[in-house]
Amino acid sequence: MRDVIATKDAPQAIGPYSQAIRASGFVFVSGQVAIDPSTQQVISGDVAAQTDRVLKNLSAILKAAGSGLEKVVRSTVFLKNMGDFAAMNEVYGRYFSTAPPTRSTVEVARLPKDVLVEVDVIALA
Fold first, then answer.
1. Residue 90 phi/psi, 5° resolution?
2. pLDDT on residue 1
3. How many CB atoms lie within 10 A of CB 23?
4. Using an 8 Å Cβ cutoff, are 50 and 34 in contact?
5. Among 19, 30, 84, 125, which has the highest number of CB atoms less than 10 A from its own CB?
6. What structural domains and CATH numbers belong to the chain?
7. What pLDDT digit, counting tens, does each position of 36-76 carry?
């Protein structure tokens, strides 16, 4: 069984991908950036503000899949500048304060729409 997950409470896919796929007891969520779903525009602000928007988007998609941030088992954080790690991590820690998931954080040369941070997750369905 493979179910495509889509919600208007998160940014719409802007290419040939799904917001998430639910399969084999897991939810695989595509990387999310700091786009406000009501405007489909990147929000203004620093990496902390962008991280907050990204995690709200991930939460909305997981909710639509019948899951939630508390069920995330794995995340990958992509940062434009590793110097932003502490600010990103402080916001991230507010969303994953108890039994946080495994995580990798990498610095990348460029992200979609020139955002500062992107996060993808895998969660239990």
1. -65, -45
2. 87
3. 12
4. yes
5. 19
6. 2-124 (3.30.1330.40)
7. 999 999 999 999 999 999 999 999 999 999 999 999 999 99
